[in-house]
Design brief:
The complex is a heterodimer of chains A (449) and B (321). Chain A has helices spanning 91-100, 119-132, 155-161, 176-187, 211-216, 224-240, 252-263, 274-278, 300-312, 327-330, 347-356, 362-376, 444-448, and strands spanning 3-5, 15-25, 30-39, 42-47, 60-63, 68-71, 73-78, 103-108, 136-142, 165-167, 192-195, 207-208, 220-221, 243-246, 268-272, 317-318, 392-402, 421-431, 434-439. By secondary structure, chain A is of the alpha/beta class. In chain A, strands 1, 2, 3, 4, 5, 6, 17, 18 and 19 form a 9-stranded mixed sheet that branches. In chain A, strands 7-8-9-10-11-14-15-16 form an 8-stranded parallel sheet. A two-stranded parallel ribbon of chain A has the order 12-13. In chain A, a hairpin with a 4-residue loop joins strand 2 and strand 3 (30-39). In chain A, helix 4 (176-187) packs across helix 6. Chain A is globular, with a radius of gyration of 21 Å. Chain B is of the alpha/beta class and 321 residues long. Chain B has helices at residues 22-40, 64-75, 96-105, 120-125, 143-157, 175-186, 215-218, 243-250, 254-257, 280-283, 291-311, and strands spanning 53-58, 79-84, 110-115, 131-137, 164-168, 190-194, 210-212, 224-227, 265-267. In chain B, strands 7-6-5-8-9 form a 5-stranded parallel sheet. A 4-stranded parallel sheet of chain B has the order 2-1-3-4. In chain B, strand 1, helix 2 and strand 2 form a beta-alpha-beta unit. In chain B, helix 5 (143-157) packs across helix 6 (175-186). Chain B starts with 21 loop residues before the first helix and ends in a 10-residue tail after the last helix. The chains are: A alpha/beta (449), B alpha/beta (321).
Chain lengths: 449, 321
C-alpha cells in the first residue's frame, strides 16, 4: 500500500516543531509559510515567524518540505458496520481509512444494528475509539426511537452519554408534527438536529428524475422531493427556534431556498457531500451501482448550483457520507442495490478539485471541511489555535494519482469515484500530536534521502 | 332562613379564575378558613344549604375531586346527586346541552361539572338556570384546585404576594397550571413554568410567566414547587421520549430541589405518578410536602364556593344573573 498506519506509536510527551510548512488557517481565512509547535498533544504556537531562523535545539522537528499543514478534516457523516455489519466496515477499518484520508475527527451515524437510540451505544463508540487510537470518534444519537420516525428517542440521556447531535441518518422525518416536537424538545438540551430532507412519499425511486432515468428505465425521484422538505423544515425552525442542520443538499432549488432563509437571519445550516459537487446523474450510466446514492446523483445544473453554494457559503460544510456496501449489496440489478458510497479516503482529493478549478481558496475549503463542522458539532478540533488539540493534516495539493478501488483501506470498495484521476494526497495525519499515518513518500527515510 | 355573612363574595357561577378580582379570591379564601375547624371537629355538619340540591356531573373520571365536592356539599346539609356518566343517557348519544336541559328541569341549585373539552362547562352554564361550578374543563381551568392551592400556601406562608412559584411538568395539557397562573398572578405572586419545550404551550410567556426548560434554573430560589401529573399516554415518545428520561431531567427529587429555597413547599394536585414526575422521598417528605394538606383544603374551599354561590339564595330558579 502507499503508507503506514502508526497506531502503536506512543504519544510524544515533549514538543515537536513542524517547520517549513504552508499553513492553512481556516478560522482566519489565511494561508502562509510558517511553522506549528506541538506540545503535549496540543498546539502550543504557530505562525509565519515561528522558527523563521530554524528550529531550536532540543526540540524534535519535522521538515514539512513546503507541503500544506491544516487542521485535520472533521467528517460529520460516517457510517460503519459496527455494531451489526462488521463484514462491511468496523470502527477500526473506518479509523484506518480516515487516517489515510486526513480525517482527524468523525461523527458516526446511528443507523446501525442496534441503532444508537440507547446511551450504552454512545458509550460503546467512545470506548472503541479509545482502544483503536486513530481518529477521534463521536456519535450521533438517534432522533426517534428505532429510527422509525414516530417517537422521540431519549435525547437528554443520549446527550449526557456524549451524543454530539441527533439524526435518523438517511431516514427523513415525513411527519411534520414529529420533527416539530423533536425541534422543541431538543431545545431543552440545546441539541443539534441533523435532517436529510427528502420527502419520503416522493423518494421511492432509484435515481433522479430526468432523461437518464427515462433512458435507463429506472423508477426515479424528482428533485423537488428535496426542496419541498427543505421549505417545510425552514418553517418548522422558524416556529420552534430549534437548531437544525440539513444534510446532503443536492439540488439547485434547495440552495436557493436555504440562501433566502439565511438572508432572513434564520439560524439554519447545511452540508453536502463530494458526489453532489463532483458528479452528476451520468455517473449511473451503464447501471453503475456504485453511483446509487441517497439522495440520488442529480443533473449537471444541480451540480453547478451546489458548487456555487459552496462558493457563496450557503452550504456550510462538506461531509464524506461514507457508507460501505459489500459486493452482495452492489453486484445486483440497480434497483436492488444498496445505496451509498465510501468516502473517507477520497474526501480531501475530490474536494481539492474545487481549489484546482479556482472555485474555492484553500482556507475556504478547510472552513467547509474542518472548522465549520467542528463548530457546529462543538468538537474540540478543526482549528489552529493555541491550546487546541494538535489534530492536523499534512498534504501535497499537487500529488497526482488515480483513485483505484483495489487500493482502498476501507473493507468495502464501493466508491462512486473509482478510476477518477485526482490531485492531492495526504502525507501525514496527526491526532492529538501523534502521527497516525504517514505516506510512503514522507517517511523519515524518504526525507533523509 | 338564609344566613347572610359579611364579606362573602357573590358570584353567579364559578367557571374559572381568570377575571376574578383579588378581593373575591381573598374573600373565598377567608371563607374557606372558617370551614377548616369545622372539618376537623367531631360534628362536621351544618344546615346552611339544607334543602338545596347539588348535582355532580362528571363526564370525566375523577375520584378525588368528585368526592371532595360531595363531602363539601353534604357537610353544608345539601342533597347531593352524583351523575355517573358511564351509565347515563350521555352514553346513549345525548348531547351535552340536552343533558343540561334535562337536569335543569329537575331544578337543582348547583351543578358541578367536569368535562374533557375546554369550554364545555361554559357552554352548559349558558343553558341552565342554576349555578354552575367548573370542576375542570379540558385544558382550560380548574378553579377550585387553584383556590385550594392558594389556601394551602397562604396558611403556610401567611401570604401569596411576592412569592416565587414554579409550576413544573406538563404545562400544555394542564388546566391546573392555567388556573394557578391566573390566581397566583392576580394575588401578586411571580410564576415560573418549567418543563420540556414539547409540553410548553405557545406564547405562554404572554400570560406573564417566565419559561424555563430545565429544573436547575427553573427551581432556583423558588418558595413553592408545584408538580403536575404527566398523563401516561404522553410519556412514550410523542411529547417526551420515556419515563426514565422524564424523571432524570424533569422529575422532582432532592437533588433538583437543592437550588430552591431551603423551606420551599412541594405541592401536587394528585394523583401522583411516583418515579415519573416526583420521587417518593420528596413526595413523602413531611417537612416540605403539603400534598395531603392540599386535599384537606380542597373540602374547605369547595364548601366556601358552594356557600358563596348558592348559600345566599332562597331559590336559585330565576335568580341567575
Amino acid at each position: 500500500m502507499s503508507g503506514d498506519i502508526l497506531r502503536g506509536a506512543p504519544p510524544h510527551a515533549g514538543s515537536t516543531a513542524y517547520i517549513n510548512a504552508r499553513i492553512i488557517d481556516p478560522t482566519n481565512d489565511s494561508e502562509y509559510s510558517g511553522a506549528v509547535l506541538i506540545s503535549d498533544g496540543k498546539i502550543a504556537d504557530f505562525g509565519p515567524n515561528l522558527f523563521a531562523s530554524g528550529a531550536p535545539y532540543g526540540i524534535q522537528s519535522v521538515d514539512c518540505r513546503g507541503f500544506y499543514l491544516a487542521p485535520g478534516l472533521v467528517d460529520a457523516r460516517v457510517h460503519t458496520g459496527e455494531p451489526g455489519e462488521e463484514h462491511k466496515e468496523t470502527l477500526e477499518s473506518a479509523g484506518i481509512a480516515a487516517a489515510v484520508g486526513g480525517i482527524t475527527s468523525m461523527v458516526l451515524l446511528p443507523d446501525n444494528d442496534p441503532p444508537f437510540d440507547d446511551a450504552s451505544l454512545i458509550e460503546f463508540v467512545a470506548r472503541r475509539a479509545r482502544q483503536i487510537k486513530l481518529a477521534n470518534m463521536y456519535a450521533y444519537g438517534a432522533l426517534t426511537a428505532g429510527l422509525d420516525g414516530k417517537e422521540l428517542a431519549e435525547i437528554g440521556l443520549l446527550a449526557e452519554a456524549g451524543a454530539v447531535a441527533f439524526t435518523d441518518a438517511d431516514h427523513a422525518i415525513g411527519n411534520a408534527q414529529v420533527l416539530r416536537r423533536a425541534l422543541y424538545y431538543a431545545k431543552a438540551f440545546d441539541a443539534l438536529i441533523v435532517h436529510l430532507p427528502q420527502e419520503p412519499s416522493l423518494s421511492g425511486g432509484h435515481m433522479t428524475s430526468g432523461e437518464m432515468a427515462t433512458r435507463l428505465g429506472l423508477a426515479s425521484n424528482p428533485p423537488l422531493a428535496e426542496v419541498m422538505m427543505v421549505e417545510r423544515d425552514i418553517r418548522l425552525v422558524e416556529m420552534t427556534g430549534g437548531r437544525l442542520h440539513l444534510t446532503k443538499i443536492s439540488t439547485a432549488e434547495s440552495v436557493k431556498v436555504i440562501a433566502s432563509a439565511k438572508a432572513r437571519g434564520l439560524k439554519i445550516t447545511c452540508d453536502t457531500a463530494p458526489p453532489y459537487f463532483a458528479l452528476n446523474d451520468l455517473a449511473v450510466g451503464d447501471y453503475r451501482t456504485f453511483g446509487k446514492l441517497v439522495p440520488p446523483l442529480r443533473s449537471e445544473k444541480d451540480r453547478e448550483a451546489i458548487v456555487e453554494g459552496l462558493k457563496s457559503g450557503v452550504i456550510d460544510a462538506i461531509v464524506s457520507d461514507h457508507r460501505p456496501q459489500d459486493q452482495d449489496s452492489k453486484r445486483v440489478p440497480f434497483a436492488q442495490a444498496g445505496p451509498g458510497g465510501i468516502g473517507l479516503e477520497t474526501l480531501l482529493p475530490v474536494s481539492l478539485e474545487l481549489v484546482h478549478n479556482g472555485q474555492l481558496t484553500l482556507p475556504r475549503l478547510f472552513q467547509r471541511l474542518s472548522s465549520v463542522p467542528a463548530g457546529l458539532f462543538s468538537l474540540p478540533g478543526g482549528k489552529l489555535a493555541k491550546g487546541a488539540p494538535a489534530d492536523l493534516v499534512l498534504f501535497d495539493a499537487d500529488f497526482a494519482w488515480k483513485i483505484d478501488r483495489v487500493d482502498f483501506w476501507s473493507k468495502t470498495k464501493n466508491s462512486p469515484f473509482d478510476e477518477r484521476p485526482v490531485q492531492g494526497r495526504v502525507m501525514a495525519t496527526i491526532v492529538g500530536g501523534r502521527t497516525i499515518y504517514r505516506h510512503d513518500s514522507f517517511t523519515p527515510a524518504a526525507a533523509a534521502a | 332562613m338564609t344566613k347572610k355573612r359579611a364579606g362573602v363574595p357573590r358570584l353567579p357561577h364559578l367557571l374559572g379564575i381568570e377575571g376574578l378580582s383579588p378581593e373575591t379570591i381573598s374573600g373565598l379564601l377567608d371563607l374557606s378558613e372558617s370551614y377548616i375547624d369545622q372539618n376537623r371537629s367531631l360534628d362536621k355538619r351544618r344546615d346552611l344549604l339544607s334543602g338545596r340540591t347539588v348535582i355532580n356531573l362528571f363526564f370525566e373520571n375523577s375520584t378525588r375531586t368528585r368526592t371532595s365536592f360531595e363531602v363539601a356539599a353534604k357537610r353544608l346539609g345539601a342533597d347531593v346527586i352524583n351523575m355517573d356518566v358511564a351509565t347515563s343517557s350521555v352514553r346513549k348519544g345525548e348531547t351535552l346541552l340536552d343533558t343540561a336541559m334535562t337536569l335543569n328541569a329537575m331544578r337543582p341549585d348547583a351543578i358541578v361539572v367536569r368535562h374533557a373539552e375546554s369550554g364545555a362547562v361554559n357552554l352548559l352554564s349558558q343553558k341552565v338556570n342554576c349555578t354552575v361550578i367548573n370542576a375542570g374543563d379540558g385544558q382550560h381551568e380548574h378553579p377550585t384546585q387553584a383556590l385550594l392551592d392558594a389556601l394551602t400556601i397562604r396558611r403556610r406562608r401567611g401570604r401569596l404576594q411576592g412569592l416565587l412559584v414554579a409550576i413544573c411538568g406538563d404545562i400544555m395539557h394542564s388546566r391546573v397550571a392555567r388556573s394557578n397562573i391566573h390566581l397566583l398572578q392576580i394575588m401578586g405572586a411571580r410564576v415560573r413554568v418549567v418543563g420540556p419545550p414539547t409540553l410548553m404551550p405557545t406564547d405562554i410567556d404572554k400570560m406573564g410567566v417566565e419559561i424555563h426548560y430545565n429544573m436547575r434554573t427553573g427551581l432556583k430560589d423558588v418558595d413553592i414547587v408545584m408538580m403536575l401529573r404527566l398523563q401516561t399516554e404522553r410519556m412514550q415518545g410523542s411529547f417526551v421520549p420515556s419515563i426514565s428520561e422524564y424523571f432524570r431531567f424533569f422529575g422532582l427529587d432532592h437533588e433538583k430541589l437543592k437550588v430552591a429555597k431551603p423551606d420551599a413547599l412541594i405541592m401536587h394536585p394528585g394523583p401522583m405518578n411516583r418515579g415519573v414526575e416526583i420521587d417518593s422521598e420528596v413526595a413523602d417528605d413531611l417537612d416540605r410536602s403539603v400534598i395531603h394538606e392540599q386535599v384537606e383544603m380542597g373540602v374547605a374551599v369547595r364548601m366556601a364556593c358552594l356557600e358563596a354561590l348558592i348559600g345566599g339564595r332562597r331559590n336559585a330558579i330565576g335568580a341567575a344573573a
